[in-house]
TrEMBL record:
Ranges of residues in domain Peptidoglycan binding-like: 337-387
Organism: Silicimonas algicola
InterPro entries: Lysozyme-like_dom_sf (IPR023346), MltB-like (IPR043426), MltB_2 (IPR011970), Peptidoglycan-bd-like (IPR002477), PGBD-like_sf (IPR036365), PGBDSf (IPR036366), SLT_2 (IPR031304)
Residue span, Transglycosylase SLT domain: 28-317
Protein's name in the database: Lytic murein transglycosylase
Gene Ontology biological process terms, A to Z: peptidoglycan catabolic process
Transmembrane domains' residue ranges: none
N-terminal signal peptide: 1-20
Length: 392
């Protein structure tokens, strides 16, 4: 699935030159020829460009996948139960033991928990078993040609060419995700070029076949995105029934010890990082699961922008490190897709910026929901209910 990692490629290799480009859209063949000419201007050989682009084909399946990411409309409980199985938990435990030496190196070099990397490894490719069968070069060129996000994908084409030059990508055979991500933890070519780590010492960075390469690279990416070494990211908590719910959400941060003073208690174990800044996260409102999250949680949004995905991955990471299954509680039923879109339209009409009216409960929609709940005298827990929809 498409991540929102830092995709600014190195200026010397991937920047758009100060010459005319073949723009997105239009004739696909002409577009590819333009890319080939641009590659030569960037310093690639003519023979390299012919070999790299010679077999490129537009892939309509990539465009369909890009426009059909409905899984992110699922609420946290449904989504997490879909992604987290006992088999995945047990496989995570086995891989933690199998690659213990690699995880020890990661902890020492980057300070990143094995739980976090195992969670992404599980969700992205089922620990390497399902890495995607889209031709990587076709996917990247198709998305660069598509006018939806050409500036995001065009640099990735030239990063893939650099991997080809190094012998780490085959234009005809390398496959991955629909968005051009490669390997066990699914990273884009520019990240492999700039942040790839040869974890197994064989002189190549092969994220498709080498778990040490993939895990070390994923760790370096997270570290450079701002992961704070050795700090927690999430802890399940119990909330007092009379809590001031408007204080919850990712807009209000204070030391964990201050939340404890307000009656917030860890569901198991002791309070992590009492002096660390933290926020209360209620994925499905006051009657559902509750988590205390720390600054490292926000770093995960640089890996994937989906609130539901990040919350599930962060929770699964704690589970892989010994936390119990969360208390699902009894949250109010989720709104249907049509109801969510109607709610977003009503929120937008009241002046709130909710982004696209897409039926997805993202960060901006949550903030707007919380403000309107407070205005209407409803529990301001950012979980949209039919009472709120009717009240608007």
């Amino acid at each position: 699935m498409l991540k929102a990692l830092a995709l600014v490629a190195s200026a010397a290799l991937f920047a758009v030159p100060a010459v005319a480009q073949e723009q997105c859209g239009g004739d696909f063949g002409a577009f590819v020829r333009g890319l080939s000419d641009e590659a030569v201007q960037k310093g690639f050989g003519s023979a390299e460009a012919r070999q790299f682009f010679g077999g490129v084909r537009q892939d309509p399946k990539v465009l369909r996948a890009d426009r059909a990411q409905g899984i992110f409309q699922m609420p946290f409980i449904d989504f997490s139960r879909r992604l987290i199985s006992q088999n995945r938990v047990q496989a995570g435990e086995r891989n933690a033991q199998k690659y213990a030496e690699v995880f020890d190196r990661i902890s020492q070099d980057y300070g990143i928990s094995r739980g976090i990397l195992l969670a992404f490894w599980a969700f992205e490719t089922d620990y390497g078993a399902v890495q995607g069968d889209f031709n990587t070069v076709n996917a990247l060129v198709t998305l660069a040609h598509d006018c939806r996000r050409p500036d995001l994908f065009r640099p990735q084409v030239f990063a893939a060419m650099e991997l080809f030059r190094r012998g780490d990508l085959d234009p005809a055979r390398t496959t991955g995700a629909w968005a051009g991500e490669i390997g066990m933890v699914q990273v884009l070519p520019s990240e492999i070029v700039e942040k790839g780590v040869d974890g197994d010492g064989d002189g190549h960075i092969t994220l498709k076949t080498s778990a040490p390469d993939a895990l070390m690279t994923g760790a370096r990416v997270l570290a450079e995105l701002g992961w704070r070494k050795g700090e927690p990211w999430m802890q399940e908590v119990d909330m007092p029934s009379d809590f001031a719910w408007e204080k919850t959400g990712l807009e209000t941060w204070m030391p964990a010890s201050d939340w404890a003073a307000l009656g917030v208690t860890p569901r198991s174990g002791k309070l992590l990082g009492p002096d660390l800044s933290s926020a209360i996260l209620l994925p499905q409102g006051k009657d559902g699961p509750a988590f205390l999250v720390y600054p490292n949680f926000n770093v995960l949004f640089e890996w994937n922008k989906s609130f539901t995905y990040v919350t599930t991955a962060a929770y699964f990471a704690t589970r892989l490190e010994g936390a119990p299954v969360y208390d699902a509680g009894n949250p109010s039923p989720a709104l249907s897709d049509d109801e969510m879109k109607a709610l977003q339209q009503k929120l937008s009409a009241r002046g709130h910026d909710v982004g696209a009216v897409d039926g997805i409960l993202g960060a901006m929609t949550r903030q707007a929901v919380q403000k309107e709940q407070a205005r209407l005298g409803l529990p301001a827990d950012a979980w949209p209910t039919r009472d709120l929809l009717n009240g608007l």
